[in-house]
Specification:
About 35% of the residues lie in helices and about 20% in strands. The protein is built from 14 helices and 16 strands. Strand 14 and strand 15 form a beta hairpin. The protein starts with a helix and ends in a 5-residue tail after the last helix.
């Protein structure tokens, strides 16, 4: 029952009875099995009740029972009150771990279509929001790609426009989203104690050179992190023919996108700070909470599902992220155009999202080709073609070997 609940809370799956963890077929047992009775038993012992499909199969002379568990939009437990969810161990193998209350809250809100940022901040009023943070947002709205019409709105009207004002009570009150965007320090500590970032710099010998922590509203946090990373963004000069071209260590648009994504898409119901780490080889950004439901590493470039539509929209209207939801595609394209490997999300897990942005010496040939193509064709290479080209430059020997492309 616990494993069925675990799979249901992890987007469904197949439970095999009679197969060991190492893949060895041991058999279900000597007793005959009625698949319908087992399905009914599972239905009665899960809460909410889970309808599974049960079938038996003969494998290597042994009976194996397959229990097909559906993906359920609600949090599932056993009738005995045990809640577990699927996770991956450090070695990549699956396991079932306790489903913590804060994780249930986050997943439950998402499944119900409830935005965490829209929940009311009980006991708070307009006086708990900072005028400095409102002014910061208005300043951002004067930048290119922002929504400048918001600059003329009064504070309360601005909150309404961003959907971070709860009008269900006579006087109105800010939501959790308003506190995340504009809250004073005391309000942030009270309502969203998880809103914290950590900035670190490590040397080539992995020594900690800097280690700073900030707890502040999101727009201030974004600017603080960008400023701190920019301090280490020296240029690398490349010669393209007779022309000298400066290629920054971090492509600024890429750096801003990964930082904004971490702040907007992190799970604020889960403890732990957003971590931004600068090292000689890469820029690493880690945020608590896995990818939102429906987003996987395989479709990361093609689908945009924000954990909080409200926070994502606020960052778009401030001109900090791409308004069409193409930020990750543009990030990959800009990274490849700079002659470096694309961002790496492979160390992302169910508990966190991690992206490593390579900052090593740029590939001069890649930069030269992309630049000359853009100048000659008056357009950039499409992303898919750039990714193929980058693979060719990374492994030229395998691409020129007879019989290989």
């Amino acid at each position: 029952m616990e494993t069925v609940a675990c799979l249901a809370n992890g987007r469904g799956g197949t439970l095999l009875l009679g197969v060991e963890d190492d893949g060895r077929v041991s058999g279900f047992g000597p007793l005959p099995l009625d698949p319908a009775r087992l399905a009914a038993f599972i239905l009665n012992k899960t809460q909410p009740n889970i309808a599974v499909e049960v079938s038996t199969h003969q494998v290597q002379g042994q009976t194996v029972v397959a229990v097909e568990v559906p993906d359920v939009t609600r949090v599932v437990g056993t009738k005995g009150g045990v809640y577990k969810r699927r996770a991956l161990r450090a070695d990549g193998g699956p396991e079932c771990i306790p489903y913590l209350p804060e994780e249930m809250l986050s997943d439950g809100l998402f499944a119900a279509g409830q935005d965490y940022a829209a929940l009311p901040a009980i006991g708070l009023s307009m006086s708990d929001l900072s005028q400095e943070q409102f002014d910061r947002f208005r300043r951002l709205c004067h930048s290119e790609g922002s929504d400048s019409v918001l600059t003329d709105l009064a504070d309360v009207e601005l909150c309404r426009a961003l959907r971070v004002w709860d009008s269900s009570v006579p006087q109105g009150r800010p939501t959790i989203g308003a506190v995340l965007l504009f809250g004073k320090a005391e309000a942030l500590d009270r309502v969203v104690p998880t809103a914290e970032v950590q900035f670190q710099v490590r040397t080539e010998t992995d020594q900690l050179r800097r280690n700073e922590t900030l707890r502040a509203p999101l727009f201030e946090t974004f600017e603080w992190l960008v400023q701190h990373v920019d301090a280490f963004n020296e240029d690398q000069e490349l010669m393209l023919g007779m022309q000298r071209v400066a290629v920054p260590r971090f492509v600024r648009s890429v750096m801003r996108e990964v930082i904004a994504n971490a702040l907007v898409h992190r799970d604020y119901t889960v403890l732990g700070p957003v971590r931004v780490l600068v090292s000689p080889a890469e820029l690493t950004v880690i945020n608590p909470g896995g990818l939102p439901r429906g987003v996987e590493l395989s479709n990361l470039l093609d689908i945009s599902v924000p954990r909080s539509v409200i926070l994502a929209d606020a960052f778009k209207r401030a001109g900090l992220v791409d308004r069409a939801g193409r930020g990750i595609r543009r990030m990959f394209q800009a990274q490849l155009l700079s002659g470096r490997n694309e961002p790496d999300y492979s160390r992302t897990s169910t508990a966190l999202v991690r992206v490593d942005v390579p900052t090593a010496t740029a590939n001069v040939d890649m930069v030269r080709f992309a630049t000359s193509y853009e100048q000659g064709q008056a357009r950039q290479l499409p992303l898919d073609q750039m990714r193929i080209l980058a693979q060719v430059y990374q492994r030229p020997a395998s691409c020129t070997r007879p019989g290989r492309w």
